[in-house]
Amino acid sequence: MKPPAPVLRIAPITRGAPELAVTASVLLHLMGRGLRGAILRRGRGPARRVDAGDGSAPAGARLLSAFAPVWTGHEASKACSTAAAGGVLVDCGPGAVPASSALTLMVADAADLAAGRLPWPLGPLVLPRRGIPRGAATCLVGPSRVRAAALDRWADALPDVLEAELTPLETGMDWRDMPVLAFAGGADRHAFFAALDGLGARVLRRVSLDGDGTLPPAMALRLSREAAEHGAQLVTTERDAVRLPASLNGQVLSIPMRASLADPQALDRVLAPVVSLRS
Fold first, then answer.
1. Which backbone phi and psi does 262 adopt, to 5 degrees?
2. Fold for the domain defined by 7-166+260-276
3. pLDDT digits over 204-256, tens only?
4. Is the four-CA dihedral 154, 130, 122, 93 of positive or negative sign?
5. Residue 168's closest CA among 150, 154, 152, 184?
6. Residues 6 or more apart from 273 whose CB is under 8 A from it?
7. Residues contacting 90, CB < 8 A, separation 6+
8. N or C: which end of the chain has fewer CB within 10 A?
9. Cα Rg for the chain, rounded, in angstroms?
10. Which fold has domain 170-255?
11. Cβ atoms within 10 Å, residue 250
């Protein structure tokens, strides 16, 4: 199938890769250049469009629906053709679009690579044997000192590296000295906890969620009671907020995290093959 628009493939290559935050930042960047996008995420069942209120859809798809139309399902590549026409088709995950991409942006967590945790499933150890996708680039995400350590190990294996750090989006909330109970799962939880410290919040407890990041009802009840006892605010990430049980509606604040590039102009250079096809 010939794709209806240039394909930008965004693929995590380490377990801790914050590909959702990177995808959101890339989409915002493209919007600033006058390009709209449609997002394709692999899934089972018939093709369907996902919105934020779709409780049966993966949390990542629901979160990204705030930035562009999101389609998922076995044949979603056909269903999202209209949405992508005239824009960019963003393929979140390798293999969802049965066509070559204009650009593959591999997302890596710098802490994973600095610690020697092996990339997966198409990481630098595997890609040289299969062939790195033509025009591939890497978004390496983490604090500057951790990125430097990761590059010491992997600079020769990672193509065209963009460096970025997860930072909280300014929402106008004054977090200074606010007592909070923080909980989060997923790749960005450590950056989220660090962001709360940087914002000046008084973090009474940090809870890391296991597995897919779903907050069990019993834990939700305990956290709600603990927050009430200490006069604290429950706070989590955007991604975890969409998975909250109904019992916590209205009780939890979320902090959006974005991938801030060390060199914003470098993204224009990397995205040039995609943008030029729409010029």
1. -65, -35
2. Rossmann fold (3.40.50)
3. 999 988 755 567 788 888 999 999 999 999 999 888 888 788 788 789 999 98
4. positive
5. 184
6. 6, 102, 103, 135
7. 7, 8, 9, 10, 23, 26, 27, 37, 38, 39, 40, 68
8. C
9. 19
10. Rossmann fold (3.40.50)
11. 5
Q: How many angstroms separate the CA atoms of 141 and 143, rounded?
A: 7
With b for 16 or more beta-carbon neighbours within 10 A and e for fewer, the 14-34 pattern comes to bebbbbbbbbbbbbebbeeee
pLDDT at residue 113 greater than cutoff 60: yes
Token pair 């995609």: residue: 274
* CA–centroid distance for 3 within its chain: 23
Q: DSSP for 11-48, please give it.
A: EE-STT--HHHHHHHHHHHHHHTT--EEEEE--SSS-E
The pLDDT of residue 119: 63
The ranges assigned to domains in the chain are 7-166+260-276, 170-255
Q: 244 with 220: CB under 8 angstroms?
A: yes
- What dihedral angle (degrees, nearest 10) is formed by the CA atoms of 48, 49, 55, 60? 110
